[in-house]
């Protein structure tokens, strides 16, 4: 009887040892062999990524005059898990950012990693928010496109959107050159998504976009626009376009479409109450305002084609430089 009990105890002991050995082997496999995999997964789970915007490349004229540059601004966002005084956050952001409290409350109460409240916030306003030291309110450095000459060459240069991406004109044509590469900051958080104070951060610096140099001359562009505005007024025209270029190599010195629009406020329709327009009608009017007629529209060449006619006559021998013609303004054929 005792022999049978000893055999059973020995078998049970061996089974327990085998189970313990299996657990130890499994732990060794997870903690040693696959340690890099699981530490990486844990790191991803507890890291929060914050983007650092890259400054967009500057656009210059042929003489190095800045036509499109960058202005330092900020982006304001909130992290739900870090907010300790939601009512104070809502009231303060509403007052300083001039946004309705209901709109901010909706974002503050959204359970997510991050909710953007507003971008392109002036640094002065961002500093006021920073001084309030509100838990859960994040302020990130950003850049806004700035055009020092505002409406000059507006249809040629184009403008950028809220995320600093090119929308029309040269801004979108050379988007891949101008846009740069954003960086990021990785911060450690606890199980509730709150950032751990004094924890190590990983940072990748942004790469600025490349600059773009045009053949345009800002002084010729200004003079050409003045001429177009005078012609528009004198002829009571709806619009006037002008292109000045070097015929030897095709370099463009100026390209004007009057009336131009304000590059720093590209969505503002002059002499129009936008609130009275439907979304479709407003978009249609904006597209017409942004249109570069010099390259997008067809027109009757008129007197500009006389050069082609004269050249063909001389080259074929039909006329000579000594020939004269009487032009009454028409010819019956």
Give a quick summary of the entry.
The protein has 333 residues and is of the alpha+beta class.
Query: Could you list the spans in which at least 5 consecutive residues all have pLDDT below 50?
Result: none
**Count of individual helical segments:** 12
Work out the helicity level: 25-40%
Radius of gyration: 34 Å
What's the SSE pattern? HHEEEHHEHEHHHEEEHEEHHH
Number of strands: 10
Structural class: alpha+beta
Q: For the terminal residues, how far apart are their CA atoms?
A: 134 Å
- Characterize the main sheet: 5 strands, mixed
Mean pLDDT, rounded to whole units?
86
* Strand content range: 15-25%
| Shape call | elongated
Task: Note the topology.
Layout: H1 2-33, H2 35-46, E1 47-52, E2 59-60, E3 66-78, H3 86-97, H4 101-108, E4 115-122, H5 123-132, E5 137-146, H6 154-157, H7 169-173, H8 175-178, E6 183-188, E7 202-204, E8 212-213, H9 218-235, E9 240-245, E10 252-258, H10 279-290, H11 293-296, H12 306-316
Parallel strand pairs: 2-8
Antiparallel strand pairs: 1-6, 2-3, 3-4, 3-5, 6-7, 9-10
Helix pairs in contact: 3-4
Descriptive account of the structure:
By secondary structure, the chain is α+β, with helices and mostly antiparallel strands. The chain has a domain of 88 residues. Helix content is 40%, strand content 19%. It has 12 helices and 10 strands. Strands 2, 3, 4, 5 and 8 form a 5-stranded mixed sheet that branches. The protein has a 3-stranded antiparallel sheet with strand order 1-6-7. Strands 9-10 form a two-stranded antiparallel sheet. The longest helix is centred in the N-terminal third of the chain and has 32 residues. The model has no long low-confidence stretch (mean pLDDT 86).
